[in-house]
Amino acid sequence: MILTTPNLTQSLPTLPALVKSSTVFRGSKGNSLLAPRGVWAVDGRLMVSDTGQNRVFIWNQIPTTEYAEPDVVLGQVDAVNTGRNAGGSVGADTLQYPSGLWSDGERLIVADAWNHRVLIWNHFPTQNGQPADIVLGQADFTGSQPNGQGIGAAPSERTLNWPYGVTSDGQRLWIADTGNRRVLFYDHMPTESLAPATAVIGQPDFTERDYDSEHAIWPYSVRIGPDGQLAVVDTQYYRTLIWHDWRTAPRQQADVLVGQPDFGSNGQNQYGLFPAQQTLNWTYDAHFYRHGLLVADTGNSRILWFDTVPTQHNQLADNLIGHASFSIGSENASTRFGTDKQLYWPFSISTDGDQLCIADTGNHRIIIGQLTLTK
After folding, report:
1. Which parts pass through the membrane (predicted)?
2. Which of 107, 101, 134, 103 is nearest to 123 (CA)?
3. Rounded Cα–Cα distance for residues 307 and 217 (Å)
């Protein structure tokens, strides 16, 4: 059964719709998704971090029905079990609150956030419960403490603390090391466990984790653009930071802020009662698409669209997905009949060609649609 809802991906009524043919996907029928916080699509495959149930699902073809059984389950032995670390001790085949995902169709990388590590499969997984090949952030696959030693331990170039986001350009790796308030950069894809990062973004060195408004306070997601841009989603300050060139990020503050007028500002919807064309509220992801940028304005239950990657602070969005007006948020009038007719706290965005996949986290589902942009 294909489940469609007309208002799921609303855009401004004065402009052509950004998305057509949007459908609802809920995962395995016997044990459907619970608060999925990560989605990734590549080469016709769909990967979902079923975060609330400590597993990652893989479908070898993007589903076209409301429910479909996964081809592969990671973190559990099957699609029924849901316990943290598979109900036992942490290992190469377990997960605890998986979030960000990245794959090029040959490798898979998962931010295993509550085990304070990132897992890498060198070859795309084909078996349920398949163990990862490489672990970052821990000395081995049995470690799961923040910064390797536990709460209060200082970070280093080898450790992680609540890593929620990962991305790659196929050669290099970036990790949103959220709990350490930094982004780690690896100048090549790690080939061994506990590999050290090459550089740090947002801190003066690898041992610091203090914060100020000049840098990301709570970096949840990191993305690389087609022209070498870097985007870091700073959830706690309701903004996304953009560098025109990723190479400059370890040495300088961001070139552009989305969602705030300057580095000192941190207002939720810029202290407005309602959202506006340039404001954000608990943003958790961004995604480069063609020459533009999609930003998950999670707390406003919408995705903002910029026709071109913003080049100035506080730039106005050109359109949106999820509402018919920039002034409507998740708790405004259009939701009084329930959230099933629209997005509700979208956490993650992915595209595969013009195929759009959204982790509609608050509704425990994935929205799959077709983007209509041609430029």
Report:
1. none
2. 107
3. 27
CB neighbours (10 Å) of residue 138? 24
Query: Each residue of 53-97: pLDDT tens digit?
Result: 999 999 999 999 999 999 999 999 999 999 999 999 999 999 999
Neighbouring residues of 82: CB distance < 8 A, sequence distance ≥ 6: 31, 34, 53, 54, 55, 76
Per the listing, tokens 């070139």 go with 255
What residue segments make up the domains of the chain, in order of their start? 19-371
Full-model pTM: 0.97
Strand partners, 304: 295, 320
Give the three-state DSSP class for 253: coil
Report in angstroms the alpha-carbon separations of 241 from 51, 80, 163, 280, 324. Answer: 25, 39, 18, 12, 26
pLDDT for 149-165, tens place per residue? 999 999 999 999 999 99
- Mention the CATH class of domain 19-371: mainly beta
Contact 70, 119 (CB under 8 A): no
Q: Terminal CA-to-CA distance of the chain, rounded, Å?
A: 33
How many other C-beta atoms can be found within 10 angstroms of the C-beta atom of residue 51? 26
The string of pLDDT tens digits covering residues 309-351 is 999 999 999 999 999 999 998 766 565 556 778 899 999 999 9
Per-residue confidence band for 1, with pLDDT thresholds at 50, 70 and 90: low
Per the prediction, the chain carries an average pLDDT of 95
Give me the amino acid identity at 176: A
User: Residue 327: phi, psi to the nearest 5?
Assistant: -95, 5
At residue 146, the 3 state secondary structure works out as helix
3-state secondary structure of 335: helix
